[in-house]
């Protein structure tokens, strides 16, 4: 069975790796994680680091886009509700 780790645990271990006070082998034995897994986590963290600073702008853009889409969907719901009510009145039961 594959072992699963939380994101906070991974972040903590990667921070220790980045401090470079201990070797991969030492950290692997302390935390019970394979050395190759630690290398993968470190590479993933280093690759994702630039996105941390870019996401601030994209998050506000996403929020604005979400709000626009939500407004459009509510308008569509209103139109469809009006159509349904009209058809209910016009069609015989």
What would you say this structure looks like, in words?
- By secondary structure, this protein is an all-alpha fold.
- The protein has one domain (7-90).
- Helices cover 83% and strands 0% of the residues.
- The protein has helices at residues 7-19, 24-31, 35-90.
- 2% of the residues are buried.
- The model has no long low-confidence stretch (mean pLDDT 90).
Task: Give short descriptive properties of this protein.
single chain; 93 residues; mainly alpha; 3 helices; 0% strand; Transposase; Homeodomain-like_sf; transposase activity
How would you briefly describe this protein structure?
The chain has one domain (about 5-90). Helix 1 (about 5-20) runs antiparallel to helix 3. The longest helix has about 55 residues, at about 35-90.
The low-confidence parts are: none
Task: Compute the separation of the termini in Å.
Answer: 60 Å
User: What share of residues are in beta strands?
Assistant: under 5%
Tally of individual domains:
1
Apparent shape: elongated
What is the typical, i.e. mean, pLDDT?
A: 90
Share in helix: over 70%
**Sequence of secondary-structure elements:** HHH
> By helix and strand content, what is the structural category?
mainly alpha
Biggest beta sheet summary? none
Tally the helices: what do you get?
3
Specify Rg, calculated over alpha carbons. 26 Å
DSSP strand count? 0
């Amino acid at each position: 069975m594959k072992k699963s780790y939380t994101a906070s645990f991974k972040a903590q271990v990667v921070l220790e790796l980045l401090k470079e006070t201990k070797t991969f082998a030492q950290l692997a034995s302390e935390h019970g994680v394979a050395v190759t897994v630690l290398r993968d986590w470190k590479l993933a963290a280093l690759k994702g680091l630039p996105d941390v600073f870019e996401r601030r702008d994209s998050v506000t853009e996403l929020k604005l886009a979400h709000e626009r889409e939500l407004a459009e969907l509510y308008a569509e719901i209103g139109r469809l509700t009006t159509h349904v009510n009209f058809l209910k009145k016009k069609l015989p039961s």
